[in-house]
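Q&A log
Question type: sequence-to-structure
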Amino acid sequence: MPDNINDLASQFPPDFAWGVATSAFQIEGAAFEDGKGESIWDRFCRQPGAIADGSNGDVACDHYHRLDADLDLIAGLGVDLYRFSISWPRVQPEGEGAWNEKGLAFYDRLVDGLLERGLAPHLTLNHWDLPQALQDKGGWAARDTVHRFVDYALGIQRRLGDRAAAITTHNEPWVVAWLGHAEGTFAPGVKSRKVAHQVAHHLLLSHGLALRALRAEGARARLGIVLNMAHTMPLTGSPEDAAQAVGVDLPAHVGLGTGLVLGADRAASTTPAAAAGTPTRCSRAPTRRRYGTSSATTPRRCSPATWPPSRPRWTSSASTTTRATSPARRARSAPSTSPVPRPTWAGRSTPTACASCC
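Response status: OK
Response body:
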């Protein structure tokens, strides 16, 4: 490891892009202002015992009211880009139908402010805060949410896509599927492995259909997904521990990881058929596109006796995460010179998915 920052920086290529990233719920606050709808995290934080200290995201970092000052802080770090997430319920309170102009205007200001400061806007469509109105209709376990997400993605593309350098569909879908629906330690707090598998399938399906629709719409931003990866090793050399490690690895690495990139059999851990013990394979191998990873954990060691691990109750501490991004030139963030008409937000149908397993 180099002793100083200059030696460390010299090990990266000249066009390597450095950035910082946040999520809407963790920093924005203004949870019920200017027409914003309730998110599943707004609801989850109010469930007794769900959050250790009883905190919530009502104020957080107050980014909604401190936008310009926060953008100055980001620019002062000397980074190339900023990855932020759109609060779906802020721009579309019910997750479908009417759009909230005040919420959209906030993100207009954010994107324009980044460009004025020479920062490339990288936006994320879903960083876990699904509109509660959709959760009341089944959430990610319901097939219809897939199509509502595609409509939402198209709406954001029409409003912000002319200025975005990159658009990410989902941030860490494993967290939504597993922590939110199997362990129940994250919103919406469901505890069902069967539901978690269905959620994982719908998240990946919505990613694929949204990217297809965005490309058909003429999106010029780089499109992709961000996955969290953590290597799992057996605690001992016993066959039982080895099998347990594979079982823990599959949902994150095959079902919600390399399957997207390499065309591996994602059905082994994510499809409803797999939950019933009948693996299938998607006949359409995914195309290799922009793919991001985030890593914040050390390798896990497990055995049947030690997995699942005991987990502390989570707090909703608001934080800003610094992370390196994939190499990208700042020139990609240059705004369009041709006028793009603001959308009418008319609904549209979504493409038909692969017939064999989707």
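Response note: The mean pLDDT is 78.
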